[in-house]
Amino acid sequence: MPRIPLVPDRDAGVLGRLAYAFARRRFGEVPEPFAALRHHPRLFWTAAVSESLLERSATVLPARLRDLAVYRTATRVGCSWCVDFGEMLWLHEGLDLDHLRRATADGAPDDPAFDDDERAVLAYADAMTAQPITVTDAQVADLDARLGHAGLVELTQHVAVENQRARANAALGLHAQGFADACEVPVRS
């Protein structure tokens, strides 16, 4: 149960209701982080625009690596909402959910079920999420060689943003909504 009430449609305002309708059309229901953020309309729109721009600009890193790093970050922080939503995105990419779920194990960055790029991405997500951050020069050099400058920057940005999302959602008590289990969630085209 969320630690604060979620803003219902009737209290979301005209633009908020339009945003809620868009979210329902895209995801089947209003994501709880949306409804929590609606308490602060300016931050709501800042987050909505930021997320939209991040999604549109993420064109260098293969989706499976990006989603794997984001999922690993969500599991390390402990955000069940982000884990659930990440599983839905993974399924929409047509990827194997069992493979993704292996990323939750403590030894995932060393698991031979993952390829070299995936293991490097998992270890980097862990190092960025650790307190304090444990990223090394060797990790950055390795990922730069694998992904290029733009790919490394994109990976870094996604892990950083997921840390922000996951920590905010966990702090507000937002939990899984069943996105990964809901067959009616439309696949993005």
UniProtKB/TrEMBL annotation:
InterPro entries associated with the record: AhpD-like
Keyword annotations: Oxidoreductase, Peroxidase
Molecular functions (GO terms): peroxidase activity
Domain of life (superkingdom): Bacteria
Protein name: Alkylhydroperoxidase family enzyme
Lineage start: Bacteria, Bacillati, Actinomycetota, Actinomycetes, Pseudonocardiales
